[in-house]
Amino acid sequence: MSRKWLLDNQGLFFMAPAMILFFVFVLYPIFYIFNASMYDWDGINEAVYIGVQNYIEMFTDDRSFALSIRNSIYWAFLTIFPQMFLGFILAYILTSGIPLQNAFRVIFFMPAIVSPVVLGIIWQRIYAPFGGLLADLAWETGARFLMQPYLSDPKIAIFSTIAVNVWQWTGFSMLMYVAGLQGLPGEVLSAAEVDGAGTLQRIRYIVVPMLRHVHLTLILLGVIGTLQTFALVFMLTKGGPNHATEMLPTYIFLKAFPLQSMGYASAVAVVLLVIALGASIFQVSVLGSRFTIGN
Amino acid sequence: MKLNTRKALAFIFVSVLALLWMVPIIMMLVVSFMPPDQRAPRFGGLLISGVSLQNYVTVFEDAEIVMHFVNSVAVTVPSVFLVVIISSLAAFALARLKFFARDLWFYLLIMTLMLPIPTLVVPIFQINKALGLNDSYLGLILPYTALGVPFAIVILRSFFAGFLREIEEAAILDGCAPFGIYWRIMMPVSWPAVAVVIIWQFMTSWNEFILALVTMNSVEVKPLTLVPLVYSGQFMMRPGPMFAILTLITLPVILVYYLMQRFMVSGLTAGAVRG
Amino acid sequence: MYRKVTLAVFVLLILVLTAPALAQDEVVVRFRSWSPVIATTEAMIEAFNAENPDIRIEPDITNYPEYLVDLQTMAAGGALPDLIGLEPGALTQQYRDHLMPLQDCAVATWGEDWEAQFFPVGIEQARLGNPEGDDNIYGLPVLVQTINMWYTVPIFEEAGVEPPTTYDELKELADMFNAQGIAPVMIGAGDGWIRRDVYMQLIHNVAPGLIYQAEDGMASFTDDAFVEAMTWWKRLFDDGIFQMGALGMTHYPAAVEQIQGGRAAMFPMGAWWQQQAANPNPPPLDQNLAGYAPFKFPDVTGMGAPEDLLGGIDVMLGVTRDSANPDAACKVITDWISGAGAQALINTYNDLPAYIGLRPASFGSENQEAVWDLFTEEWLASVQYARQLKSPDVKQALEDALAAVAAGEMTPAEGMQLVQDANSM
To answer: Is the minimum CB–CB distance between C94 and chain A shorter than 8 Å?
Structure first.
């Protein structure tokens, strides 16, 4: 390597620390799980090579895996869009100059920074069918519709879990929109007002389109969040009842540790990885690499 | 006049919603002040009969909260620091310099934006073991940094990319090397974006627990998030102390957010301006 | 001269840095488990160290699910601690190749007839799942238990009723308690293990011993008896025997908190429930175990309740092959089973001792002592069958099936088919 080459490629030195960490703590683990996915292995004793058998079983005869995929799809749609919608409304109100708006922003954002371990334990008490907040409220006020088998009915449980996630992350969406709204040039809005456009029209035809980058960022973060969902489900339902709230990471955990099938768990992890790659590539190809805040 | 009614309505709407929003957090606080021999409070814990500080006393006596707190800080702060330095260097290069296979590096990095930690626990443990890092702060700092860097790069790169070429060119004419441009020109005005990175990384490092569980063997080095798991056999059945612990875990993150939130909004805004 | 000084400083520095390592001639035994809880473990260590000050024990206690992750990660990395907590069956078998046979340690401590000094169920289960011809003991039982029902004494006294022995009595009580807003049978059926515990008692009522034959392939999980037990399980939900929403609640801590708060008339649990008495700041019902009494699972099927209870090992301890100090580890284990450490453990009523003849130093009430005697003298001696199953896959399938049937997603027959499928894999 000549001196000139190095001078022309100084960027590599800037990249070096990131890349070293990346190779050691990200790339190697990926190869490791890829390799492990080809074995029948309990994680401790000798592994038996079985080729793609784990993958075949996963896609042909694994209800829990299918449920985790279904739940991930539910999760992506039912967290991302409600969070954006609610977040936008809050952001719009909280940039309109009402009293205490900074305090309100802090309040709505707060759940986003609390550990999911903590939230899981608290929300169990809210949903608890016996002595829980909602159940007691229903009992005392006669609002019986509040008394639902939130976490015990396999048909409802995933939505109850998603609701917690929406509660947790709406504040984050709000904050992103607050930032976006504050960045909008004021003339645009006042010009529209002079034109006599009503509030709703103004929002719909001017504000929302101008916040395109915020929408896209939130979708990206929402997809990341969906694929990484672990702690909240683990603490709230352990993936139950009967795997009704299983997500890919919780299923990987269940297989790898309590069920002693590290090989199979690795295969599920590889699938998750491929989905993640696909999502990343999709994001990049649709949005270019300019897919975060601004620019 | 019409505008004021509207604002008043908006204010009421937001107030009610905010109150509802706070219920879980309030519940956590209330239960943590419940007298220790009380059980099954009404409304999941929103109503208690009597207030007591005993739970906090118990927690501080039985679990070395201060020690675990220090451990959390010793893991979180360096990982935040490293993420900021490492990712800003890389983001600067990716945004402003030309070099060999630049786009390839970037795509490689963002591909791992979505890696969930539970899938990587076993291999990371083995790497740490090979490097002799288990049971040490570095055993968490390095993986947290590695996993946090891609997201931070994405944030900072788009921020750096928004700078005007002219300033940079003027600096080059003045004989400023790329590192000088990065360190003396870009970084000092990038605090809004850096604030976003700091908050995000602080949250993830502070709250992570699966990797911490397998990496930290000795009680002396366990971070605060492990406390409910380590002591839950003991505290699980005593909701008061349990919720006192939960409160103690939560307060520092809220504090950091509170201190940084001014920068957070302006950081995000600064990014969004260039939409 | 200058270089000599530098060298001297350097050597001194190395000495200072390595001094603690050199000075350390005490033996270290690292211990990891999910049970007993940390406070009890510390009391046991203290008791042990009073007699063996030269052995330092480093404990690390985590919740069971997290413990499994911890153990497996360390085993994969070849870094197991000296002493690990084990469950009989699947967990012990998974780690068998990493565990040292302990019978020599046992003989050296208790003599040739050491097995006779333990409750038989403990010894039998310690070998659960060993391959044909392997009689090694890979873990020594520390605590044993039965599974059974408990009732809340003041609630029963106020209602003027007795614990039920048949399904009709159970149903009658349930209707009464439901009307009062009290959970008839409080179960946190969101936890798989408690679902399984209740089912094990149901199938034990229908056909004692059959489930173990099915595990070995000598019977099918789809046989009528299993489906019938599953049908009873479903009825417990449908008839309001279990409290509403039971499937969405954890047994620990959610159900327990309600039990302690006096909102449960009866509940499935086990001998370990006695440990409530040792918790600091106990709620009134827990104090000296004043508020609770055990009873046998009612004869719901009407086929006659079996005399014996299900039970087994609560926790056993194994010494890993990685251990640098197996002798010290043996010393610790045996002390915790029958020595000063064991006494410290039993004093917390954590569960029943596997070693015959140990007794807590004191009881807080007559009720508590009577309960202890009932467990150790009558119930534990009757145990013939295990509470646990051998294969983790069958266990998981059964727990899934129980949840699915309870939720109405599967019929009892479909549920048992799921279990059979898992067993034949």
So the answer is: yes
Q: Which chains touch B (3 or more CB pairs under 8 A)?
A: A, C
Minimal-distance CA residue of chain B relative to A222: B114
In contact, B89 and A17? CB cutoff 8 Å: yes
- Grade residue C16 by pLDDT with cuts at 50, 70 and 90: very low
Contact C69 B219 (CB under 8 A): no
* Contacts A257 to B, Cβ<8 Å: none
pLDDT computed for residue C25 by the predictor:
61
Q: What are A175's strand-pairing partners?
A: none
Domains of chain C, each with CATH number or no CATH: 27-141+314-364 (3.40.190.10), 146-310+387-424 (3.40.190.10)
> Is B234 at the interface with chain C, CB within 8 A?
yes
Domain borders along chain A are: 72-243+273-287
Contacts of C189 in chain A (CB under 8 A): 152
B188 in Cβ contact with B250 (< 8 Å): no
Long-range contacts for A118-121 (Cβ within 8 Å, ≥24 apart)?
A: A118/B28, A118/B228, A118/B246, A118/B249, A118/B250, A119/A164, A119/A168, A119/A232, A119/A235, A119/B24, A120/A231, A120/A232, A120/A234, A120/A235, A120/A236, A121/A235, A121/B228, A121/B242, A121/B243, A121/B246
Q: Is the ipTM of this complex over 0.90?
A: no
Q: What is the pLDDT of residue C178?
A: 92
Domain A72-243+273-287, CATH 1.10.8.60 — does that match? no
Q: Which of A132, A211, A228 sits opposite B44 (nearest CB)?
A: A132
Q: What is the DSSP letter of C362?
A: -
Q: Which of A44, A62, A124, A246 to mutate to test the interface with C (most CBs of C within 10 A)?
A: A44
pLDDT tens for residues B44-80? 777 777 888 888 888 888 777 888 889 999 999 999 9
- Segments making up each domain of chain B, as ranges: 1-52, 64-273
Residue B37 forms contact with C (CB below 8 Å) = yes
* Cβ-nearest to A15 among B21, B93, B264: B93
